[in-house]
Amino acid sequence: MELRIRPSSRAGWTMSAFGVLAAGMGVVGLAAPDALIAAMGFAEAPAAGRADGDHTLTFLTASSMAALNMGVYYVFAAAADWTAFFRWTVPFRLLTCTVFTLAVLGDRAPTGFVGVGLWEGAGALATAVALRADRRRAAGESRTAAVPA
């Protein structure tokens, strides 16, 4: 099986871009967790350090590792042009957008966290639009190929 490096479809490009960004954010969270905390709008740890029982960094390590893994999966799926996977991600990324946005609206997360939800939602919509464009292009090519010369 040959693994291409570059995606061959519009939807693949959206997945690859999302994957690279997710993996990058995962690396930032692992290497510089306080930078990621600040970027998302969460309060930084006080100068005296974190309180006993504060597992923020543990949770951030787990989330960052998941983002890194997910990003790599997305890049590999894009390289393999795994269209079914692309379709599966759209509703779940929209669900993530909804849950994260509701967390902000419900005061469970700071306002800056809405950016994470919007990033997920925008990425899902971009992938959905690209999947539709890819389908239309493939349908046009198959009609053109079916017409005798």
What keywords describe this structure?
149 residues, mainly alpha, 5 helices
Give structural notes.
The chain has 149 residues and is mainly alpha-helical. The chain has 5 helices and no strands. The chain has helices spanning 10-31, 33-39, 56-79, 83-105, 114-146. Helix 1 crosses helix 2 and helix 4 packs antiparallel against helix 5. The longest helix has 33 residues, at 114-146. It is elongated.
Question: How is the topology of this model organized?
Answer:
Blueprint: H1 10-31, H2 33-39, H3 56-79, H4 83-105, H5 114-146
Helix pairs in contact: 1-2, 1-3, 1-5, 4-5
Task: Count the E strands.
Answer: 0
Count of DSSP-assigned helices: 5
- Alpha-carbon distance between the two ends: 34 Å
Q: The biggest beta sheet, please? A: none
Reading the helices and strands in chain order gives HHHHH
**Overall average residue pLDDT:** 89
Q: Report low-confidence residues grouped into runs of 5 or more.
A: none
Helix content: over 70%
Q: Proportion of β residues?
A: under 5%
Class by SSE composition: mainly alpha
CA-atom Rg in angstroms: 19 Å
Outline: elongated
State the gist of this model.
The chain is mainly α and 149 residues long. Helix content is 73%, strand content 0%. It has helices at 10-31, 33-39, 56-79, 83-105, 114-146.
